[in-house]
Amino acid sequence: MPQGFNTRSIHVGQTSEPTTGAVVPPIYLSSTFQQEVPGTPLNGFEYSRCDNPTRTSLQENLASLEGGLLAYSFASGMAAEDAFFRAVLKPGDHIVLGNDAYGGSYRAIEQVYGPWGVTNSCIDFTDLTSVEEVIKSTKPRVVRIETPTNPLMTIVDIEGVSTIAHKHGALVLVDNTFATPALQRPIELGADVVLHSTTKYLGGHSDVVGGAIVLSDAGLAEKVAQIQNWLGAISSPFDAYLTMRGIKTLGVRMERHSSNALALAERFENHKAVERVLYPGLASHPGHDIAKRQMSLFGGMMSMQLVGGVKAAESLLTNTKLFTLAPSLGGVESLIEHPGLMTHHSVEGTALEVPANLVRISVGIEDIDDLIEDLAQALDSLL
Ligand SMILES: Cc1ncc(COP(=O)(O)O)c(C=O)c1O
């Protein structure tokens, strides 16, 4: 019988170290590996840019959790995405991405690959008829989905878009950073590739930056492996260890992140200072039914638009005591930020510009009563 998600998150790639019996495998810091016969690596390891046992453990684990064939881990989410695009794109190719994709990804697609002759279209993925029209007319090499999106929490039908993309010969990449494989597994829904900023929920403790690509096709995986090996934007052994340490509790953390976020969303949806709460677990969310179908829970990320505009947003960010004002997300502690001024500043003036009255909250796993009390006093102070 195949093992369950939590069992695999703890055990895959994590066999005890045979010499000492250490239950937690050591961090292999060595940059190089001894050979007895020239050109014949012992146990396959030769030089740590190409392969390192600690990185291999993490990669095996990630492939298993996402239901993929192979995974590759990198120094950041952006390094992972860049490795995938370098592996599959050539001048003249086209990328279709969401019109509220993560701003850093849009910046790379527009400003790095644009001058190399790779064009892009930013579209609304929630309207499948127009998705098909754009894909049919632009013939993209890659369709890049994010769901839920950062920071507008839009839900994209992974299965629906993948079917359309495949009909027209495109590869589908899903950025699964917000949901994680604990809640949503894009490869099982038809996607070809999964992208992670492991900096977020997989690491889970705001103490390591990393990224990963998981693939279901051996030929495509080989191309990503070459880019990882040849260009070297790898995760260090220590970063791979920290990420693996975080993953062991991913399942239980995501349950708590999700229940805390749902409680906050329900509690403050009708607060007088709040124009709109964006959380896919709310029945009022336009993507709620699709989210219910493709996610097991709704995750720990939520956004809010405030009645009082940017001024209210700025006050809220400085009035909370437990929610720390900081970019990033997915750690055990609750964070709050203003996408327009912080994480998504780079897309100001583009089609991806975010509303000025928007705040994004990464709901942590603290006690829910404490989170409610803090957000209530901060929102009340805006009235
Ligand atoms: C959804 C999403 N994808 C990718 C990235 C890029 O990841 P990293 O910051 O690890 O390079 C981020 C970073 O915030 C993100 O939120």
Describe the structure.
The chain has 383 residues and is α/β, with parallel strands linked by helices. It has 2 domains: 5-247, Type I PLP-dependent aspartate aminotransferase-like (Major domain) (Aspartate Aminotransferase, domain 2, 3-Layer(aba) Sandwich), CATH 3.40.640.10; 250-380, Aspartate Aminotransferase, domain 1 (Alpha-Beta Complex). It is 37% helix and 16% strand. The protein has helices spanning 5-11, 53-66, 77-88, 103-113, 128-138, 158-167, 218-231, 237-247, 250-268, 288-294, 309-319, 368-380; strands at 35-37, 40-41, 70-74, 94-98, 119-123, 142-146, 171-175, 193-197, 211-215, 274-278, 301-306, 324-325, 335-337, 358-362. It has a 7-stranded mixed β-sheet, sandwiched between helices. Helix 6 (158-167) links the parallel strand 6 and strand 7 (171-175). Helix 1 packs antiparallel against helix 2. The chain is globular and about 75 Å long. It starts with a helix and ends with a helix. The model has no long low-confidence stretch (mean pLDDT 97). The structure holds pyridoxal-5'-phosphate (PLP). Residues 76-78, 102, 104-105, 146, 150, 175, 177, 197, 199, 209, 211 line the site of pyridoxal-5'-phosphate.
